[in-house]
Design brief:
alpha/beta; single chain
């Protein structure tokens, strides 16, 4: 495995802390329903879950015409939410690609009435707005006839590698390669290492996740680990509701407070938070997603300093919230505002102030802790940030 230094290429990613995951494809057309029946499970797994025959799923692909898609709208929604990068499903398990592949005609340009290269448009828009861009690529493929034993090696050499070469060489805006679908019998550690070397050689600056078998960062899913693994880069990916790909009737939405506190929790343990959106078949973000992104952005506009570029909490996890750290500052993210106006912190700062207005707060030492005198009303009902400054 490559031994080139990882720190330079990971510098922007560690600074970012917050990104948008996008699961989008032809599965947004049925939106969780097949032949009038609501299909249990994840929206993007409907081909497998409903056992849709190949010919019928190809007919669904031919109906995929997201005429309302606007790359700039999606990127603005991410940027206004405080996100610093985007990762989208360039090819999911169903084998359908969102880019103009010359290796296959099973893509959005050749197989749908839409005929637009979504990956190119979104990658270009992301960089135009100052965001980094990532492409998700599934190792598993339900559509390609060779993507299982005994022809899997041929699928890797003649299909998977050529498509990855297309993505990496024809879309220079790709900063992250996000693999998935590795949990199949045909994939092995040796294949993973060989594939990692293959894509790394094509673009040395790429950041690659660990689901190829080896990688630059770990990818816990749907939860933040109890403790951040020391010395390891990691990123929690999570849905806003119960599915990754769009399901018209999934209304089990996490509230904005839960989402922001999850971001804070991840940052306090030295990790990133990749929050998923599942756009509709028309190419729009559902209203519950848009409203939550806007609300997260309002908090990040005031408090982003306490997230971006921060490192793991030096004082563990206090009962009232979380800590993040950067330079000579420790940020106390207070979830449970003290009713008596006395916030106890496990440190002795030279100054303490509210991030929202930079107004200094009175402090007094009480035994082994320092008590910060805070206002009666918290600046935020989600998380109020008290900055602890050290000499």
């Amino acid at each position: 495995m490559s031994t080139e230094p990882r720190d330079p290429r990971l510098a922007w990613w560690r600074e970012a802390r917050f990104g948008m995951f996008i699961h989008w494809g032809a599965y947004a057309v049925p939106a969780g329903t097949y032949k009038g029946e609501r299909i249990p499970g994840l929206g993007e797994w409907i081909m497998s879950s409903a056992k849709i025959p190949l010919a019928e799923y190809e007919e669904i692909v031919r109906r995929f015409n997201p005429a309302r898609f606007d790359a700039d709208d999606w990127v603005r929604a991410a940027k206004n939410a405080g996100m610093k990068y985007i990762v989208i499903t360039a090819k999911h398990h169903d084998g359908f690609a969102l880019f103009d592949s010359k290796v296959s005609s099973y893509d959005i340009v050749d197989a749908t009435p839409y005929h637009h290269d979504v990956i190119r448009e979104l990658a270009t828009a992301a960089h135009r707005h100052g965001l980094r861009f990532g492409a998700y690529y599934s190792i598993m493929d339900w559509h390609h006839p060779d993507a299982k034993a005994p022809n899997f090696a041929r699928y890797v050499e003649r299909y998977m590698k050529p498509q990855l070469r297309e993505l990496i060489t024809q879309y220079p805006e790709i900063d992250i390669l996000w693999f998935d679908g590795e949990k199949i019998a045909e994939w092995s550690e040796a294949r993973g290492e060989e594939m990692y070397e293959f894509v790394r050689a094509l673009e040395p600056s790429l950041i690659i996740n660990d689901r190829v078998g080896v990688g630059d960062f770990r990818t816990p899913q749907q939860e933040v680990p109890p403790q951040g693994p020391p010395g390891v880069d990691w990123e929690t990916c999570m849905t806003m509701n119960g599915t990754w790909g769009f399901k018209s009737y999934d209304d089990d939405w996490k509230d904005t407070r839960t989402l922001l506190r999850t971001l804070i929790d991840a940052a306090s343990k030295g990790g990133n938070f990749l929050l998923n959106v599942g756009p509709t078949g028309e190419g729009t973000l559902p209203d519950p997603i848009s409203s939550r992104l806007a609300e997260m952005g309002a908090w990040m506009h005031v408090n982003g300093e306490a997230i971006y570029g921060t490192t793991v909490s030096p004082y563990g996890q206090p009962a009232w919230g979380r800590y993040t750290a950067k330079g000579n500052r420790v940020y106390a993210h207070v979830f449970d505002w003290p009713k008596d106006g006395r916030l106890e912190v496990a440190a002795a700062p030279t100054r303490a102030y509210l991030l929202v207005d930079k107004q200094s707060l009175n402090m007094e030492r009480t035994g082994t802790t320092m008590t910060i005198h805070v206002p009666a009303v918290p600046p935020s009902t989600i998380a109020s940030v008290v900055v602890l400054e050290f000499a």
